[in-house]
Write a structure and sequence with these properties.
The protein is an alpha+beta fold. The protein is built from 14 helices and 32 strands. The protein has an 8-stranded antiparallel beta barrel.
């Protein structure tokens, strides 16, 4: 069945002879990602230009930027709208035969993800598309503005403009970096090659190899460097969107879960292959240069290629991971380490569909087999405890550590957030978007506190002020950034007027990590302490973590009753698990008792609210609502939500 993307790609296909060109035809879906993709391909065709492409409606919306992008907001670059391209074109680098449409050399000059600033569909239609880019070279706020059409003009002329933010820099030539983000090659080397576009697939034999991988011993330490690279990939594996954990208030207790410590650092994906290494952030940004201290340790791994999931950390004097210390060491230099907790691929074998407990065996064998003296590597294995999650949480809490991550032992690796990974926090820490600051009355101090918030329903909701945790260096750095981010109006939808009158507002593009004592009744942080900027997390992803809580069905259910009493209880559970619908909404666990020392069930309460709704909603409609949520009843843990 033809899709909307097929219709949008009709012009693209009409212009190409796929018997001659190695370009993708668009018959295959693009790779799943954690965000909307964007790419820039330097294209030496009839004339040299840069093809700027953003993912929308299942295709890559495309513009030919004749002089390439500029970091100077005053330098508006012509961008001619071209036909939509298939998503799998975003990985194309190579040559298009001369005589074919667009014949010439193509370099993958930049790639990453993008966020629409506002309604993208309306922006495209109106000729005013604003966005935030998270690329390896192009970052921050950009805009595509359509020029007024001239009479009988056949093409759409737009302007690619760098908007004013902390990234804008009239003195920096972003085009000076002229090599591929995919292979590191210049145009001349790509032109001399014989690359053809291919889609990566996993042969059946690789799956068989994966099943037997845990039994394999680490490769012999006596093999030569030549043998080590024989048959290896010519480049590191591509970035794969990471698996993320869902926040819960209580850790699962059963034996089907592996519990690991939650670390206070930067998530990293290590891609090694062909004698090269790339280190990606959680959003796919290439931070190889920033994490360069880890490169010798990665080079010591005894493998041809690998894709490893972990966390870059810095240890304080007590041996605890410390995010503030990590930021200082990244800036000034210092010891880093990477705690590795998963492996997605090894020596050409995709391991993602293997159960976690097998993947960890493979990972440990790889790390134990590193070249060099044992115990000196910066790549450390993140160990785990099987079962007894609540007991581990209590030990972590007593030690003053951040929390744990609980993972289903038999689950494959699934990109994105789900219920296979659950995180339980022992401290109150969260990311917030910075939307302004309160000026300081002290001479020489840049500000007294920052104003922070979270995204909710397309709005930035105010969550309070943070006034501690800023040393002199941090104040200086933030002052410089704030000077480039000044905004005229409050970005918050609900900022109290008394605070607004004395505040200075900023474009909400920075993310802060904050420790705090508690949330007040009106949803504001209390005793907040600034821990650092999160450059690896886009502002659009910053929401109240409480909204992601999952309390029901987090424990794997046994396939059969363990004893007679369990067998007798099974029919009762099945009967009470039948669907109950109230006001069009299915009530899960309708039999659950809600209030302590009471027989009122969840279903009883739902029916009560249905009965009083006509009177109650008249007073609640259009007003902020504060809830005390007790997913397992008032006798268990509850949490506040506004």
């Amino acid at each position: 069945m033809a899709t909307k993307a097929d219709a949008l790609l009709s012009t693209y296909r009409e212009k190409r002879d796929f018997a001659r060109t190695s370009e993708p035809s668009g018959t295959l879906a693009g790779a799943a990602g954690s965000g909307l993709a964007f790419v820039v391909q330097k294209h030496d065709a009839t004339r040299l230009h840069y093809d700027f492409r953003v993912e929308w409606e299942g295709v890559l919306k495309s513009w030919a930027v004749t002089r390439g992008p500029s970091l100077d907001p005053a330098d508006k670059r012509l961008a001619v709208r071209t036909e939509d391209h298939p998503l799998d074109y975003g990985d194309f680098e190579g040559t298009i035969p001369k005589g074919a449409y667009g014949g010439g050399t193509v370099m993958l000059w930049d790639r990453g993800t993008w966020e629409p600033h506002g309604d993208a569909e309306a922006g495209l239609a109106a000729g005013n598309l604003k966005m935030v880019l998270h690329g390896e070279r192009m970052t921050g706020r950009w805009a595509l503005i359509r020029m007024k059409p001239r009479a009988k003009e056949k093409r759409e002329n737009w302007l690619l403009i760098k908007e004013k933010d902390e990234i804008a820099d009239p003195d920096r030539d972003i085009l000076a970096t002229d090599c591929s983000v995919k292979t590191g090659r210049p145009m001349a080397a790509i032109a001399e090659g014989d690359e053809e576009w291919t889609r990566a697939t996993i042969p059946p034999s690789a799956k068989d190899k994966a099943r037997s991988a845990p039994k394999a011993e680490p490769k012999s330490k006596t093999r030569s460097a030549k043998a080590k690279t024989a048959g290896a990939s010519t480049q590191p594996p591509a970035f794969r969107p990471l698996q993320l954990a869902t926040l819960v208030s209580e850790a699962p207790a059963g034996p089907g879960w592996l519990h690991e410590m939650k670390y206070d650092g930067y998530r990293v994906e290590i891609a090694v292959g062909g004698g090269r290494t790339r280190l990606f952030t959680r959003t796919g940004l290439d931070w190889t240069d920033r994490f360069a201290a880890l490169l010798p340790a990665v080079a010591a791994l005894r493998c041809d290629s690998a894709l490893i999931d972990g966390e870059v950390v810095a240890f304080d004097g007590d041996g605890k991971t410390d995010f503030s210390e990590l930021q200082k060491r990244l800036k000034d230099g210092g010891d880093l380490a990477c705690l590795c907790f998963d492996i997605l691929a090894l020596d050409g074998t995709d391991l993602a569909m293997e159960p976690l407990h097998k993947r960890k065996v493979i990972l440990k064998a790889l790390l134990d087999g590193q070249d060099g003296k044992k115990g000196e590597s910066l790549l450390l294995y993140s160990d785990h405890v099987r079962g007894n999650g609540p007991a581990m949480v209590e030990q972590i809490r007593q030690a003053g550590l951040e929390g744990i991550v609980s993972k289903k032992a038999d689950a494959p690796y699934r990109s994105g957030r789900g219920k296979d990974w659950l995180k339980t926090k022992c401290t109150r820490r969260q990311e917030f978007v910075i939307g302004g600051f309160s000026p300081s009355a002290k001479k020489g101090r840049a500000f007294s506190s920052i104003l922070v918030g979270v995204r909710e329903g397309g709005e930035l909701r105010y969550r309070g002020r943070v006034g501690s945790g800023f040393d002199d260096d941090t104040l200086r750095v933030l002052k410089e950034k704030f000077s480039l981010m000044a905004g005229k109006a409050s970005p918050f939808s609900d900022l109290p007027a008394a605070i607004a009158r004395t505040s200075r507002f900023l474009e909400p593009t920075l993310v802060a990590e904050v420790d705090f004592a508690e949330m007040t009744a009106d949803g504001h942080v209390r005793h907040g302490v600034f821990k650092g900027l999160r450059e690896d997390k886009p502002p659009a992803d910053i929401v109240d973590e409480a909204t992601g809580l999952v309390e029901d069905d987090v424990e794997p259910k046994p396939s059969k009753p363990r004893n007679a009493s369990a067998a007798e209880a099974a029919p009762r559970r099945a009967a009470t698990a039948s669907k109950e619908v109230v006001a069009g909404i299915t009530v899960t666990h309708p039999e659950r008792t809600v209030f302590d020392a009471s027989t009122v069930t969840k279903l009883d309460l739902a029916r009560y609210y249905e009965a009083v709704a006509p009177r109650m909603l008249a007073h609640l409609s259009g007003r902020p609502l504060s809830l005390v949520r007790c997913p397992s009843g008032t006798q268990r843990k509850c949490f506040f939500q506004k």
